[in-house]
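Good day; I would like, with your permission, to put a structural problem before you. What I wish to show you is a protein chain and, alongside it, a tokenised description of its three-dimensional fold. I would ask you to consider whether the tokens describe a fold that such a sequence might reasonably adopt. You will find the record immediately after this paragraph:
***
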Amino acid sequence: MEACANRCSSCNFNLNASKWAQVLVPGCLHGYHLSCALQASEPRRPGVEAPNGNADDSGPRSCATCAELLLSEVDGVRMLYKECSEELHRRDPTDLELFRTVEIKQGRETSPLRELPRSILCLQGLRCLDITGHPLVRVPPEIRLLTSLKRLCFVSTEITELPEELGELQNLQQFVVSCCPLRCLPESLCKLVRLWDFYFDGNQLRELPEQYPPLVNGLKVSGNLLRQIPEAVGGLQDIKCIRAYANKLEALPDSICQLTNVGEMSLQGNRLQHLPQQIGSLQNLQYLSLHDNLLRTLPESILELSELRWLYLYNNHLQDLPRGLTTRLQQLERLLVETNPLSEAAVADLIQSGGSLRVLGLDTEQASRVDPDSLPPWVSVGWMLPWYRLYAKLQPASQLKRRQGVEPVRGHLPATPENDVLVVAFAASQAEPEWLGVLSQVYSGDVSVAEAELQISMDDMGKFSGLFRALHERELQEDGSDEDLERLASTCWLSAPPHSSSRQNGEALQDFDVLTLCDTGAQWYTDVSEREQLEVERRLREIVPRYKRVILLGVSMGGFAALSNSHLAHSVLVFGPQTDLTLSHLRPGFSPEDLVRMSDNLRSRVQQALSQGVHFQYHVGAEDHLAYARRVPLPRSCFVVHPVEGRIARLLERAGILWPLLIRSIAREQRLARGASGRCGSGWNG
């Protein structure tokens, strides 16, 4: 076999890195189409012809150098063949995806990677490299050899730094390094002249480069340790979003007001004491989150944000607001101002809305400064618990969207709650309150419990039997049957027609209390070094014993928190939670040791909760989150697998399934509460 870099040494057709990915073997300089190299790396059964049509080894394997690179199961092409996603097995592949969670489709655990495989650095014409969930500790300088890359992702790895040689990837358009203990970015980042999209969320970055690629359309650096945003950001005219929440920012550069195309600015969970005076120049801004900062005043120019729809200001030090905030901003739909010492005049001005306002969040102290009869129904009032940097609002569900005749709550938190059931709703990593809309729909009173049950069926889904057999083969051998398998693989799916507008007779939900929790610091409701001490478990222990029954509710990061505190509840309802942070594609940028500790704590608390008889319902799609579910010590009967991929709670809400599920769970606890002998907590020693 002749050494030739122009023709494939397997099929003898031309090599062309602009069309196909190819392997160039160091030393012998033999070249292969990546598809040919993958075929040559397959384990060969006796009597099966070689890829070149010969039964002998006159092809790629006849060269010792080629054979070593192709057949190595440690860092060779065979390893890629075994461990990569199905993208690699398409015709003429150009993308490499190494996901730990690919085990769901392979039916076996993947091998963790700590070094970038040597075979990857031998590839030419590679367009995408995505390594997610592997304990990769470094990116070698040789990454510069992958000059054709357009997309590069390192997600949930153990990388702490990046080489300056990344600046040589002149074709790179998308660059993602998130959920890693990354401490700094290379200055050569500005040399990536084609880069338009990057994510550096959930790391340990303390500062950003002074210069940036000219085409970048967003600054996505939430969940780091940043103290400032460089002035140079103001020169990036294509920026449409700034996500810098959950950092330690003390001020914003004045140049940020030059970003007239920005539509989203998420700055919650920082230490901002003031805003640039010209912030009103951001004429396309629709979403502005400033909650959980140290703001004392707002610039008058904020009234010029004519497109603003969502404004979050809670947990600051604001005594007054620009007059006419809710009347001048005609597009404003949602405004939360709780836990600010607002004056009587400021509160009175807020409730004079003549625009599109649908939700105005006030706490009971603020609401007490005006006549309660003057509060419109779109004002949502509740008690704000003094839980430091956590948004912790406690209110009856009837206050989420007050119906005519329902008065707002007032005064101090009563010593004994009027309602028996508490729903603790943990927000996810977006660092903003969740669940309020769907919970207000749950308590709307328009649908009886019986009607909600009709919207759900647990139909057998035979097509999932193979998947479940692969995942639970050992358990099935012990005590499972085909019927049991199909029951476990069933999915909660809409089968009944939409309910009629006429009310059917049946039990309706009674009022229940909702405690909305939001971790704006993106700490996953956990205490670790260099972050704020939240003490979530201790604070929950102070409130949950007041109730007969407690439900913990969460999705994604919120689901992680619900499971981690499941020993404090009677029922836990989660949707697509991250559970094993050592391989999750979404996680905080903490140390590997902290991630292990947090994951172990979750499993321990779940086991403790099971021993206490806590009821679990774990909803998950047929995708990556199913791999996380396997690592939770729950009985199989606790899992409900849905035939969808994506954000499971959002998809279920769109399908009209989420609210019936919640109604059923809350109704169950209310029935049990009516038969309970006393308030919970007496037997909880945790």
